[in-house]
Design goal:
Layout lengths: L2 H11 L2 E6 L6 H9 L4 E4 L3 H13 L3 E7 H4 L3 H8 L7 E5 L9 H16 L3 E5 L5 H15 L3 E5 L1 H4 L9
Parallel strand pairs: 1-2, 1-3, 3-4, 4-6, 5-6
Helix pairs in contact: 1-2, 1-7, 3-5
Length: about 170
């Protein structure tokens, strides 16, 4: 099984059905898996904060959900985290494909990558970076269980060490 298959199984084992997302090349294996599996309810959002709102509404309606985005999209959601997820104790699962590190070619990605973890820390939001296939299932499973038990959001950051990242085509 691929890392993405194992990750999607972990979501299923934890009852996460709604998958809101903003498309991203690195997330393609996850998004393709979600689209191919009738267990999941995929919803494409126009913006990351919209996706957070959908996941929050799902929780309020009794459905567990996650939000998939890339690092630069994270820059649009601190207000939604601080004014919705945290005060209303909504255990949204944020899945962020990490860009801006390890040879990144897009300078816009680099700035958000440098600030993402400090922003999560400032919001007192748990976050875990998934770097390898061996530890990924354990960390993801326990992070989701803790988020639900404590009614707190969590961010799972998918490192390029796990996903392979995004590479500039035809680079010298």
């Amino acid at each position: 099984m691929t890392w993405s298959d194992v990750f999607l199984n972990t979501l299923k084992e934890n009852g996460v059905r709604l998958v809101t997302y903003v498309p991203d090349n690195v997330l393609t294996p996850l998004l393709d898996g979600v689209a191919a599996d009738n267990y999941f309810m995929p919803v494409c959002a126009t913006r990351e904060d919209e996706a957070v709102g959908m996941a929050a509404g799902a929780w309020m309606g009794g459905l567990r959900g996650c939000v998939m985005m890339q690092t630069s999209g994270f820059g649009t959601i601190p207000n939604a985290i601080a004014s919705l997820l945290v005060p209303y104790q909504i255990p949204a699962i944020l899945i962020v494909s990490e860009r801006g590190a390890l040879g990144e070619f897009n300078s816009g990605q680099v700035m958000v990558a440098r600030t993402m973890r400090p922003v999560l820390d400032a919001l007192a939001m748990a976050h875990h970076t998934l770097t390898d296939e061996k530890t990924m299932p354990f960390i993801a499973d326990r992070a989701i269980k803790q988020a639900v038990a404590t009614q707190s959001p969590v961010a799972l950051i998918l490192s390029p060490l796990l996903t392979g990242g995004k590479v500039l085509k035809n680079a010298p």
